[in-house]
C-alpha cells in the first residue's frame, strides 16, 4: 500500500535557559494511506509535538517529514500552511474555534482560504453532517463542548483532507458525546478513505485503530498492529 506520511530520524529540540531540551529523539515510522493509527504515551512524552510536526504546524529541528510526497521539513510556514489547506485536517482537544465567528463562519474559513465558491451552502452541508445545522448561527461560547468539537470536525472535514490528525479529540468530552465524535471520525475513514492519526489517552479509542505507536520520553518505543 502507498504511504502518505513518512517520518525519518525526526528530532525536535527546544533551547531553554541555556540548555537543549530534546523533546523528540530520532523518530522513524511510515503511515499507510487509508490506515487508522493511534499515538499513545504518558503526558509530556512528546505526542502533541510529534502530531504538530507530522501535520506541518511546526518544523523539526532535524530529520524528514514527508506528507503526500511533499517534504514539509524544508518548507517555510506559508508553504506548510498551503499544504495543510490542501491535504490536512486537524482537530484539537480544546477545539480552537474562532470565538468571534459563528459555527457556520468557522466552517467557512478554510473554504474561503482555498478560494472555493458557494462556500455557505457547503459549510451548511458540513454542519448538517455533524448534526448541527440548527446551531449554525451560534457562537462557540453558546455551544456545549461536544457541539464545539463537532463544529471543529466539520471545519477539519471541509477540505476533504487526505489525512486527519486529532490531538485528544475526546479528551474534554463526556462518554456519550465522545462516541458521536469518534463515529464521525471513523466514518470519514470508511467513507472517504481518509487516513487517521489520533493522539489519545483513551485505550478504547486506540484499540479501534489498526496500529498503536507508543511514545515515551521522546522516543518511539513500540509499534503494534491491533485487531482494530
Ligand atoms: P504530550 O503531548 O505527550 O503530553 P508534548 O508534546 O506536549 O507532550 O510535550 C513534550 C515535552 O516538550 C514536554 O516536556 C513539554 O514541556 C515540552 N515542550 C513542548 N513545547 C515546548 C516549547 N515550545 N518550548 C519548550 N518545551 C516545550
What's the overall average pLDDT, rounded? 95
Q: Give me the count of strands.
A: 10
Figure out the total of helices. Answer: 7
Q: Calculate the terminal CA-CA distance, rounded to whole Å.
A: 18 Å
Radius of gyration: 17 Å
Strand content: 25-35%
The unique ligands bound to this protein are: adenosine-5'-diphosphate
* Strands side by side in the biggest sheet: 6-7-8-3-9-10
**Uncertain regions spanning at least 5 consecutive residues:** none
The rough form would be described as: globular
The ordered string of helix (H) and strand (E) elements is EEEHEEHEHHHEHEHEE
Describe the largest sheet: 6 strands, mixed
Helical amount: 25-40%
Structural class: alpha/beta
SSE order and pairing:
Elements: E1 3-16, E2 19-32, E3 36-40, H1 47-54, E4 62-67, E5 70-71, H2 77-87, E6 88-91, H3 103-113, H4 119-129, H5 145-157, E7 163-167, H6 175-192, E8 195-199, H7 203-208, E9 211-216, E10 219-225
Parallel strand pairs: 3-8, 3-9, 6-7, 7-8
Antiparallel strand pairs: 1-2, 1-4, 4-5, 9-10
Helix pairs in contact: 3-4, 3-5, 4-5, 5-6
The structure holds adenosine-5'-diphosphate.
Adenosine-5'-diphosphate binds next to strand 1, strand 2 and helix 1.
Explain the overall architecture.
A hairpin with a 2-residue loop joins strand 1 and strand 2 (19-32). The strands form 2 sheets. Strands 6-7-8-3-9-10 form a 6-stranded mixed β-sheet, with helices on both faces. The model has no long low-confidence stretch (mean pLDDT 95). 34% of the residues lie in helices and 30% in strands. The relative contact order is 0.19. The radius of gyration is 17 Å and the shape is globular. It is α/β, with parallel strands linked by helices. The chain has helices spanning 47-54, 77-87, 103-113, 119-129, 145-157, 175-192, 203-208; strands spanning 3-16, 19-32, 36-40, 62-67, 70-71, 88-91, 163-167, 195-199, 211-216, 219-225. Helix 3 (103-113) crosses helix 4 (119-129) and helix 5 (145-157) runs parallel beside helix 6 (175-192). Adenosine-5'-diphosphate binds at residues 14, 16, 21, 23, 41, 43-49. The site of adenosine-5'-diphosphate has 12 residues, from strand 1, strand 2 and helix 1. GO terms for molecular function: ATP binding. It comes from Rufibacter sediminis. InterPro entries: AAA+_ATPase, ABC_transporter-like_ATP-bd, ABC_transporter-like_CS, ABC_transpr_LolD-like, MacB-like_ATP-bd, P-loop_NTPase.
Amino acid at each position: 500500500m502507498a504511504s502518505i506520511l513518512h517520518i525519518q530520524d525526526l528530532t525536535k529540540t527546544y533551547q531553554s535557559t541555556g540548555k537543549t531540551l530534546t523533546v523528540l529523539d530520532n523518530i522513524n515510522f511510515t503511515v499507510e494511506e487509508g490506515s487508522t493509527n493511534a499515538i499513545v504515551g504518558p503526558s509530556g512524552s512528546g505526542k502533541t509535538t510529534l502530531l504538530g510536526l507530522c501535520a506541518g504546524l511546526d518544523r523539526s529541528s532535524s530529520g524528514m517529514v514527508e506528507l503526500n510526497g511533499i517534504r514539509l521539513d524544508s518548507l517555510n510556514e506559508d508553504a506548510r500552511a498551503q499544504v495543510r489547506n490542501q491535504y490536512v485536517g486537524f482537530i484539537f482537544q480544546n477545539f480552537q474555534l474562532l470565538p468571534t465567528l459563528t459555527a457556520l463562519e468557522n466552517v467557512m474559513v478554510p473554504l474561503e482560504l482555498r478560494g472555493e465558491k458557494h462556500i455557505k451552502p457547503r459549510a451548511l452541508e458540513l454542519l448538517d453532517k455533524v448534526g448541527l445545522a440548527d446551531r449554525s448561527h451560534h457562537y462557540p461560547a453558546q455551544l456545549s463542548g461536544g457541539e464545539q468539537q463537532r463544529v471543529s470536525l466539520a471545519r477539519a472535514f471541509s477540505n476533504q483532507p487526505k489525512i486527519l490528525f486529532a490531538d485528544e479529540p475526546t479528551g474534554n468530552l463526556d462518554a456519550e458525546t465522545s462516541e458521536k465524535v469518534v463515529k464521525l471520525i471513523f466514518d470519514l475513514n470508511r467513507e472517504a478513505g481518509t487516513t487517521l492519526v489520533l493522539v489519545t489517552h483513551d485505550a478504547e479509542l486506540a484499540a479501534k485503530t489498526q496500529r498503536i505507536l507508543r511514545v515515551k520520553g521522546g522516543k518511539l518505543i513500540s509499534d503494534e498492529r491491533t485487531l482494530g
